[in-house]
Amino acid sequence: MKKEDKTFRVSLVVALVVAVIMGFVSGVVGELWVNDFLAPDLEFKSYHDLTKRIDELLGEKNSSIKDLLTGHDAAFNQTIEEIEPITATFYLYQKAGVGLNDQYLANEVLGSGFVLTSDGWIVTTTNVVTNPKRDYVVEVGGDIYQVTDIVADSMTPAVLVKIAANNLSVANLGSKNSVHNSQSVIVASKISGMERANINKVVYMRAESSSDLVHSSETYYRFIKLGDSFSAEYVGAPVVNLDGKVVAVLLNRDGEALPIDYLARVMKTAVQSGNIDRNLLGVNYIDLIQAVNFEANVDAGALLFDSNGRAAVIHGTPAYLAGLRAGDVIMKVDGDEINERQSLTELIQEYNVGSKVQLTIIRGEEELKIDVQLDKLISN
């Protein structure tokens, strides 16, 4: 009996020793497997190290996101500081007085604008200054100024107004080529504050009916579309990128904005002479970038098109005198291609009034180059 007990105890000890050895070996092998096969790039040496590294990774990620958001907010706040002084608010004129009814109230705001020159030229839209025969006032920097002159643009809904002021802060101007889809911008209003918005489309062409696909060479139709809707006081407001540059003017509550590029060439002459002069070409056309299901031999260009009583080439205009015809596709203006970034209308209006340009066209299967002498557009 004693011999059996002794044998049992020896067997138990051996089993325990073997178990300890096997456990140790399993642990070593398991760690080697993790290190060599499971995640060698992360250099996890133990479960504790794995936990530590994951915590560090998450910490770095959260820190990066926080830094990104902090930087974005800093740019946003800096931009607000820069554009507040150049933002204008429009009202109908009323005589100054001491009564409560003589004050300009928030619910009387017609819309917004921005300061273009230090001596009082301001940009807004026809949706704000709807009737040039009425009297308007503008609030800039806490002061009220009466509008002394109104200059409308025949090709866009933009309006330039003049107030008797000096030493105003002025807007820095940018280009639609500096912005892209989904980019954050700021729409500025003195009454409702600064609204952050995203660009839905840099090149937006509204087409609610088939007739909207036919464009005049004397009307801009490509706009910037913001992904938000706005209250009325924002109409006419500057659309500003996070570099503090005005890239567009808000046209309506639906978020359509006029690129400032369309005014760049004419603003200088407008503030000098009080007139906005535009070029006349004299065609109606389909923008083949927009008409994606239209059968044509090319994917881009301006197809001269007769539609609903509108002639493709208007009698007596520079296009008519140069011999352009319905069915011609204008591909280039002085070598600059008509494409998604620039329409025929945009290219023509880049020239001084009365310039001569060379159009590259497709007529049937033939490519032609035709010289056209532009003329001055007479406003109605």
Explain the layout of strands and helices.
Layout: H1 2-38, H2 47-83, E1 87-92, E2 111-115, E3 121-125, E4 136-140, E5 143-152, E6 158-163, E7 172-173, E8 184-189, E9 193-204, E10 214-216, E11 223-226, E12 238-240, E13 245-250, E14 256-259, H3 261-273, E15 279-280, E16 284-287, E17 302-304, H4 318-321, E18 329-333, E19 336-337, H5 344-348, E20 356-363, E21 366-373, E22 375-376
Parallel strand pairs: 7-13
Antiparallel strand pairs: 1-2, 1-4, 2-3, 3-6, 4-5, 5-6, 8-9, 8-12, 9-11, 10-16, 11-14, 12-13, 13-14, 15-22, 16-17, 17-18, 18-19, 18-20, 20-21
Tell me what the structure shows.
With 380 residues, the chain is an alpha+beta fold. The chain has 2 domains: 81-96 and 103-273, Thrombin, subunit H (Beta Barrel); 279-376, PDZ domain (Pdz3 Domain, Roll). It has 5 helices and 22 strands. The chain has helices at residues 2-38, 47-83, 261-273, 318-321, 344-348, and strands at residues 87-92, 111-115, 121-125, 136-140, 143-152, 158-163, 172-173, 184-189, 193-204, 214-216, 223-226, 238-240, 245-250, 256-259, 279-280, 284-287, 302-304, 329-333, 336-337, 356-363, 366-373, 375-376. The strands form 4 sheets. Strands 10, 16, 17, 18, 19, 20 and 21 form a 7-stranded antiparallel β-sheet that branches. Strands 1-2-3-6-5-4 form a 6-stranded antiparallel β-barrel. The protein has a 6-stranded antiparallel barrel with strand order 8-9-11-14-13-12. β5 and β6 (158-163) form a beta hairpin. The chain is globular. InterPro entries: PDZ (IPR001478), PDZ_sf (IPR036034), Peptidase_S1_PA (IPR009003).
